[in-house]
Design goal:
alpha/beta; FAD/NAD(P)-binding domain; Polyamine Oxidase, Chain A, domain 2; 9 helices; 27% strand; elongated; binds flavin-adenine dinucleotide
Amino acid sequence: MQTQTLIIGGGLSGLSLAARLSAEGRDFLLVEARERWGGRILSEQYQEGTFDLGPSWFWPGQPRISALVAHLGLKRFEQFCQGELLYEDERGHVQRGRGFASMQGSWRLQGGLAAVINKLLQKIPVDRRISATPINALRKTSDGVAAQTVAGTEIVAKKAVLALPPRVAAQFSYAPALPSGALTAMEGIPTWMAGQAKAIAVYDRPFWRDNGLSGDATSRIGPMVECHDASPAAGGPYAIFGFIGIPPDIRRDTEALHEQVRMQLVRLFGPEAKNPKRLHVKDWAFDPYTATYHDRKPLHAHPNYGLPSVLSGLWDETLVFGGSEVAPTFGGFLEGALEAAEYAYTVLKTGRGRSETRL
Ligand SMILES: Cc1cc2nc3c(=O)[nH]c(=O)nc-3n(C[C@H](O)[C@H](O)[C@H](O)COP(=O)(O)OP(=O)(O)OC[C@H]3O[C@@H](n4cnc5c(N)ncnc54)[C@H](O)[C@@H]3O)c2cc1C
């Protein structure tokens, strides 16, 4: 197979770049490892509701994601925050009060964030995108790059955009070897939220709202350390989601984890929470197309993202980094995925990166 631009990774970054190249009638191929598209964006449908198991929010002050949502004809709504908050102390005692709802003013998307992915896919011809095809090796050629799929097929291109977490891309084999420091830099960039797991409990009724609660809760004992209402914009089914705070290596017993989540839901929200219609836990830390071993170490702050200068212009500008983690301003976020795709587009168009690479 041969193409001008090979985009590796069909998350928000790769898809938005592919849609842009497609609109301009350019020659490209988008290759995705998983059977599904969207990468860290993953929404599960249950009856009439769609529930986000990856990202849920975007925020005022993030221009690209807001513009994309509007351009695709999708509708945003505000995170539900009306009512009292809960706090569970280290002994499992639950207090309710009026405190600060941490996600007040955040936006969610009607139909879940997968709606963005589905709309972007419609803009990319089927013969320009291939799923279920992991890449595992890249080779520099005299005038570009050759990518090898796990199944052994070779895709030859003038440029390759790595629209995936740098840590995941560091696992490819490179011939010739990347310059010293490049692989170390790639491995050193933590993938935002990759070590996280999210639990979603779906119910017929929003009984917590009926009881004057917003669905917001924080806990010192877990397993969920931060919960929020995850219901659709209008109508049911309704849901609560929580970030799991137990470290990845000691939450691998899924059955036990489900049971602990159920028990905590009852401690927090009362006996009506005991039997969710659906309880889903998505553990990203063990998903090899998102996380590597290094992502199992918890992150305590948002890293300082951007493209390290050692990763700029690799292999005579044929390797272009494009995943959210290389975005200088909004790195790690959905907005960052679009910012990074914009950067990759500039490199493809001008042959040169911009000067805001860091270090
Ligand atoms: C639990 C969770 C909650 C989050 N919450 C938020 C939030 O509320 N707001 C926010 O802004 N951001 C949030 N994020 C971060 C957000 O999801 C990411 O910033 C964004 O989705 C990254 O998009 P991307 O295209 O750069 O990378 P990804 O979505 O990671 O896409 C990379 C793609 O590359 C593919 N790939 C990997 N390996 C290969 C290979 N060998 N060959 C081919 N393809 C490959 C992957 O399958 C994937 O589809 C959250 C993330 C998680 C996991």
